[in-house]
# Entry
Amino acid sequence: MKPMQLVRTTVGGTLAPSNKPLPAVVWRDGVLISPLVDTLEPFLLASRIPVWHPGSVPKWMAHQRAGDRAMYVLWVPSGAWLAGFAAFEAEHGTGRVYSIERGEWIDYDLRGATEDFTLTLEDGSEWRPAGTIAVDFANYDYDLAAFNGDAHAMRTAYACRETGTVALSMLAVLPTVGGAGHGRDLLDFAESWAVRVGFPAGPWRVEDGQVKALALCTLSATERNVSMYLRRGYTAMGEYELYWGRATFFVKRVVHDEGDAVVAAAGTE
# Structure
C-alpha cells in the first residue's frame, strides 16, 4: 500500500495558438500536467493516431464538457520535445509513425500536427504537449453487450455509476518522447486526482462521492501494457471481445481509512 499524493505547485501559463491562460501542475521535475481544454482538441486527435483510430475524439470532448470525463495533457520542455522528434525522425524518417491499430508504419506528419501547441510559463520557459490521459466517471464507451450480457462484469470492470468505479482511459504518449516514464507520470497523476477529488456532483455521483476502485483496459495483445498494469497493483478481471479487438480489463481497489487518508495498491513502480 502506498499513499496517493496530489499536493503539487500550480503555475500560470499562456497557451498558444489561442493565447489564453492555462494553469498547470508541476507534477515532477521536467513534467507539467494541465487540463485538456478545447484548444487542445487537435492535439488529442494527433496523439491518438499512433495508438488507435481517433474518430471518437469529438464525442470524448462532449463528455468532458458535460462533466462526465476529465482529460489532461502532459507537457515537457520544448528542448526535450524537439530533441525527441529529431532523434525519432533520424531513425525512422519524417512523416511516418507506427500504428498500433494497424500493426504497421503509416504516413502521418505527427510533428506538423502538434508543433503549434506551446505553453509559455510566467518565467518565460516554453513547454510542448507530449501525452494525454482521461478520468471517466460514466461508462459511455462500453455497454452490457460488450461484456456478453454479464452485468456483474460490466459493473466491476469499468466506469460505473453504481459501484463507485472510475476508469482511466486515453493514455497516450507521443512515440518521440517514449521511454522517459511519461506513461507512469500520467497514470500516477490520474490515479491520485481521481481518488483525492472523487466523483463530481451530478447524475454519476455515488452517495458519499468517494471513488471505490480504479479501472482501465488495454488490448490483450499489448503484453507491455498488461505487465505494467499488473505491476501497478491492478487485477485482471477478464477478457472481452470488443468492437476494436480483444481487451483485458483491470481493477485496483481503493481504501479510505478512518482519517480519510486515501491509499491504493501500487505494485512495484
Summary: The two ends are 12 Å apart (CA to CA). Confidence is low (pLDDT under 50) at residues 259-269.
